[in-house]
């Protein structure tokens, strides 16, 4: 979502980061470029004006004139102001009320409310260990209730049935009563949306809010709505005591302006980002990490958290133990590593979160790494268990059988075997204390830790095919 904004800002700020002194004249051009970049990203004009003025005042103030490197200090100011616009820190859900805590979801039709209800139910169930009940009070959209029932089954949340001939307030109060009986911790109420803001919609949702007194009232907004985000946010903020925002479709080609505008306009924090259609594609919104990514500084914390949640720790420990005992790194291990990387969103998603690796992420995307990884997996799947354990068995006829079974070419198979051999060689060096020695050596090269993992980030080492 922030790709274009990131490119423009990085380009604009490059000219000034090397300056020994900052003056009104040499920051004027940079600020003009920053203003244009923000406007092109669909950030609301009042937000752009306030942001640029704040950066200008701080850049010409005492904190820069006394700095050892004013150019880099300017970049830090821009980062600080981006964080301030989006909210200083992640705002968690406040569910510290007598159970069941009610979460009311509001927003226009098509913003992704129903999907967000399921994503949030899954998030609360898995991360917060809550028992969640979901209910649809949308009696206008024919498929809304069935859609939520299907999604509830997928995420393992309790579903309260409703029908189109019931009143929304009756549905919601009955669901809360059921939640008390079944000892649910949280009730998430999906509400009706419209294609535009109208009095009937606002009156209905205000009545619903009064009836259920929610602990959280979340405004769901489509990141691709652009400049209109401001008007929509203002209307809902005036009608309801909002407590936070969920920004959906942040994985699309939206320009990112909504994220920078909504917080400023409503004064309410963005609590979550919807980053895909799958039910697990919901991330807590961290303004500092997003600002860091916009300015091409990476996002190590999110990468670590993602690894903790999505990497199979048992498999990872098994591989480390195998390597340390000096056992052979076989093609089954390589397949597991490819699958772990796919779980993390693929090579491009990982590189984007590493500091200074934005260009490498683009190269990975252009080289169509995702397709190549799937191809490698298909080749390994076409082998027998014995061939996976010992690739030396592969003779001409076996290779022909494998490429026919996987629908690939002989050069694809040979490239995979070469890649595996390089990785196996590296794994051999890590036997015993070799891994610790290698990490210490890298720590020395990187100036005391940090930087990329051994092998350029590809599990097991070595650059992935197509990027050499």
UniProtKB/TrEMBL annotation:
One cellular component (GO) term of this entry: signal recognition particle
Coiled coil: 297-324
Ranges of residues in domain SRP54-type proteins GTP-binding: 269-282
Primary residence: cytoplasm
GO biological process terms, semicolon-separated: SRP-dependent cotranslational protein targeting to membrane
DNA-binding in keyword set: no
Keywords: Coiled coil, Cytoplasm, GTP-binding, Hydrolase, Nucleotide-binding, Ribonucleoprotein, RNA-binding, Signal recognition particle
Single Gene Ontology MF annotation: 7S RNA binding
Localization terms from the record: Cytoplasm
UniProt superkingdom: Bacteria
Keyword Transferase: no
Binding site for GTP: 107-114, 190-194, 248-251
UniProt cross-references to Pfam families, sorted A to Z: SRP54, SRP54_N, SRP_SPB
EC number(s) stated in the UniProt entry for this protein: 3.6.5.4
Reaction it catalyzes: GTP + H2O = GDP + phosphate + H(+)
Family according to the record: Belongs to the GTP-binding SRP family. SRP54 subfamily.
PANTHER family: SIGNAL RECOGNITION PARTICLE 54K PROTEIN SRP54, SIGNAL RECOGNITION PARTICLE SUBUNIT SRP54
NCBIfam families reported for this sequence: ffh (TIGR00959)
Function: Involved in targeting and insertion of nascent membrane proteins into the cytoplasmic membrane. Binds to the hydrophobic signal sequence of the ribosome-nascent chain (RNC) as it emerges from the ribosomes. The SRP-RNC complex is then targeted to the cytoplasmic membrane where it interacts with the SRP receptor FtsY. Interaction with FtsY leads to the transfer of the RNC complex to the Sec translocase for insertion into the membrane, the hydrolysis of GTP by both Ffh and FtsY, and the dissociation of the SRP-FtsY complex into the individual components.
Domain notes: Composed of three domains: the N-terminal N domain, which is responsible for interactions with the ribosome, the central G domain, which binds GTP, and the C-terminal M domain, which binds the RNA and the signal sequence of the RNC.
Assembly and interaction partners: Part of the signal recognition particle protein translocation system, which is composed of SRP and FtsY. SRP is a ribonucleoprotein composed of Ffh and a 4.5S RNA molecule.
Protein name in UniProt: Signal recognition particle protein
């Amino acid at each position: 979502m922030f790709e274009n904004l990131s490119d423009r800002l990085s380009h604009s700020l490059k000219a000034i980061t090397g300056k020994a002194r900052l003056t009104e004249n040499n920051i004027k051009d940079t600020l003009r470029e920053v203003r244009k970049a923000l406007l092109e990203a669909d950030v609301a004009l009042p937000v752009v004006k306030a942001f640029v003025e704040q950066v200008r005042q701080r850049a010409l103030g005492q904190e820069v004139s006394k700095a050892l490197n004013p150019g880099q200090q300017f970049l830090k100011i821009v980062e600080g102001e981006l964080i301030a616009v989006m909210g200083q820190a992640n705002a968690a859900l406040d569910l510290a009320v007598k159970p069941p805590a009610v979460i009311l979801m509001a927003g226009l039709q098509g913003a992704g409310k129903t999907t967000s209800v399921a994503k949030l139910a899954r998030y609360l169930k898995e991360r917060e260990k809550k028992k969640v009940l979901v209910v649809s009070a949308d009696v206008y959209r024919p498929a809304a209730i069935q859609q939520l029932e299907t999604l509830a089954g997928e995420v393992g949340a309790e579903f309260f049935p409703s029908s189109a001939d019931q009143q929304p307030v009756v549905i919601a109060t009955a669901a809360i009563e059921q939640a008390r009986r079944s000892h649910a911790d949280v009730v998430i109420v999906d509400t009706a949306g419209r294609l535009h803001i109208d009095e009937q919609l606002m009156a209905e949702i205000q009545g619903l809010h009064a009836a259920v007194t929610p602990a959280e009232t979340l405004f769901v907004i489509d990141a691709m709505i652009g400049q209109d985000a401001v008007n929509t946010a203002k209307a809902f903020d005036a009608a309801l005591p909002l407590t936070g925002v969920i920004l959906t479709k942040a994985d699309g080609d939206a320009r990112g302006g909504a994220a920078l505008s909504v917080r400023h306009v409503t004064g309410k924090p963005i609590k979550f980002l919807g980053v895909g259609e799958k039910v697990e594609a919901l991330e807590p919104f961290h303004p500092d990490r997003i600002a860091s990514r916009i300015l091409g500084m990476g996002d190590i914390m999110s990468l670590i958290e993602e690894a903790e949640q999505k990497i199979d720790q048992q498999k990872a420990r098994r591989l480390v133990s195998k390597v340390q005992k000096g056992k052979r790194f076989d093609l089954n291990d390589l397949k597991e590593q490819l699958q772990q990387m796919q779980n993390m969103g693929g090579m491009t998603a990982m590189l984007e979160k590493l500091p200074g690796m934005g260009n490498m992420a683009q190269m990975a995307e252009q080289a169509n790494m995702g397709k190549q990884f799937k191809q490698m997996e298909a080749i390994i799947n076409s082998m027998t268990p014995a061939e996976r354990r010992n690739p030396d068995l592969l003779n001409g006829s076996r290779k022909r059988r494998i490429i026919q079974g996987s629908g690939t070419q002989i050069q694809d198979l040979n490239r995979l075997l070469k890649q595996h051999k390089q990785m196996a060689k590296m794994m051999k060096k890590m036997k015993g204390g070799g891994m610790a020695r290698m990490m210490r050596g890298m720590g020395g090269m990187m100036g005391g830790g940090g930087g990329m993992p051994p092998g350029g980030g590809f599990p097991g080492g070595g650059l992935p095919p197509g990027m050499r």
